[in-house]
Design brief:
Alpha-Beta Plaits, 10 strands, alpha+beta, eight-stranded mixed beta sheet, two-stranded antiparallel ribbon, about 475 residues
Length: about 475
């Protein structure tokens, strides 16, 4: 530790504990005010001085000296009571309590000096009170919640006050037996001890202040790092939750997860939807290269509005899978919960309602952006395999049901939802008032001839739903 750093410590302030840990005790003592701390530490000092007076002071003057000790303790009690009533004057009362406590170690000496005027043969030895004065100066070290400069001032005041009384008010050497050399040099002993202790206290207090502020700075830095780590974890969790379904995200965020382990689940009764905007490709080709970014912004706004629909409670069972160009892919029924209604009728009906909501949102965006985009949607119900491939999480679904839903979209009609006959029967069980349009048998790429039905994305339904959201 360099002295230059030690004496130029500019580390910020820190929160201080109101508790005091006493020697040989494991439990902390709560002393929330400096006045109480001064009173607490003054009691053993008063007891020690009482014993000194009892053993070394003539019996005829002991009542006066004992009275002085009791008066000091009484004033300290009064200041503590006053502090509990007047919290605003805490610093002033603390300084007052410290000044009063200064008379506990030296007050008896002062009483004997005054009494020596009447009784000329009354010996007044300064060195007798030196241990008490040293103990009181060490009390400044315990007032750790006071500013360092104020503690240095109080220690200097303490030292100066004691030196004046011990050096200038004591029995002269001529009145002392020459056979007691320690008494004859008591002034030198008092002066050297008090000054040395003052310098030592100031230095130790400075070291303690530096270490306390350094520890506080480390604690603040640690808390900031901990907060940053927690923030990054929250951001990662938010990103994972946006990419993966909640049950899958929980598995990927677990600490005991094997990164090389394949995550895949079989799901029955899943309704898969592909929703395309066919005329967006035409809009993209009409824009020159300077407006491509504007086209992407518009597509991003459309997709974001579709994503907002997923936050609605009624669409909580739907998971967005991905977007490919202007095609939006979603599925209902991928939940792992046993309590959820995972019937094919319910999943298909929710997807149809979601498709109507998407059309309603797109209509409003067309009005705002002066465009004429329309949806072409294909859905299918059946079993799928859902999972994540690789270490970079990308949730996807596979299966024949996904392929059929994709073909229902690519071979569909703009402004309609196209389904095969099985999906149409499932939807009719849930709701019988769907206005189906029989399209007949069409050739589906990779699947051969297939009978399909169309469900119009009704403008009336769109407007009503848009008013609801």
């Amino acid at each position: 530790m360099e002295l230059n750093i030690l004496f130029h410590c500019t580390t910020g302030s820190c929160e201080l504990s109101p508790s005091l840990l006493l020697p040989f005790f494991n439990r902390e003592v709560s002393l929330k005010s400096e006045c109480r701390l001064i009173l607490f530490l003054s009691i053993p000092l008063a007891i020690a001085n009482y014993l000194i007076v009892y053993q070394n002071v003539p019996q005829k003057v002991q009542p006066v000296v004992f009275g002085q000790i009791l008066v000091c303790l009484g004033i300290l009690l009064f200041i503590c009571a006053l502090e509990s009533l007047c919290r605003t004057a805490n610093l002033l009362l603390t300084i007052s309590a410290f000044i009063v406590s200064m008379f506990l170690p030296i007050g008896q000496h002062l009483c004997l000096v005054l009494l020596a005027v009447t009784w000329h043969r009354l010996p007044v030895f300064s060195i007798l009170w030196l241990p008490s004065c040293i103990s009181h100066m060490c009390l400044v070290f315990a007032l750790y919640r006071l500013p360092y400069s104020l503690r240095c001032f109080l220690a200097s005041l303490d030292c100066g006050f004691f030196l004046i009384l011990l050096v200038f008010f004591s029995t002269s050497v001529s009145n002392v037996l020459q056979s007691a050399p320690i008494i004859s040099c008591q002034i030198t002993i008092c002066f050297v001890n008090m000054i040395s202790l003052l310098l030592l206290l100031i230095f130790i207090t400075r070291i303690t202040e530096y270490e306390r502020k350094s520890e506080a700075s480390c604690n603040v830095a640690f808390k900031n790092e901990e907060r940053d780590v927690q923030l990054m974890q929250d951001i990662n969790r938010l990103l994972i939750d946006n990419i993966l379904p909640p049950t899958v995200a929980h598995k990927f965020l677990s600490h005991d997860r094997n990164t090389d382990e394949l995550y895949a689940r079989d799901h029955d009764n899943v309704c898969v939807m592909f929703a395309s905007i066919p005329n967006f490709k035409e809009y993209w080709s009409e824009c020159d290269h300077t407006r491509k970014l504007e086209c992407l912004r518009l597509l991003n706004e459309i997709v974001c509005e579709f994503d907002k629909l997923l936050s609605k409670p009624k669409f909580s069972c739907i998971e967005k899978i991905k977007t490919v160009a202007s095609t939006y892919m979603a599925a209902a029924g991928l939940t792992d919960s046993d309590n959820a209604d995972n019937s094919p009728e319910r999943n298909a009906a929710v997807i149809v309602e979601f498709a109507q909501a998407m059309a309603s949102v797109l209509d409003q965006l067309n009005i705002d952006s002066f465009q004429n985009f329309e949806l072409r949607i294909g859905i299918n119900v059946g079993p799928v395999v859902a999972g994540v491939l690789g270490q970079k999480p990308q949730y996807d679904i596979w299966g024949n049901s996904v392929n059929i839903a994709s073909r229902m979209d690519s071979s569909g009609v703009i402004g309609y939802i196209q389904v095969n006959e099985e999906t149409k029967q499932i939807l009719s069980k849930k709701k019988s008032d769907y206005q189906w349009i029989y399209r007949g048998e069409i050739n589906i790429k990779g699947k051969g001839p297939m009978i399909t039905y169309l469900l119009k994305l009704s403008r009336k339904n769109r407007i009503n739903f848009y008013k609801l959201i």
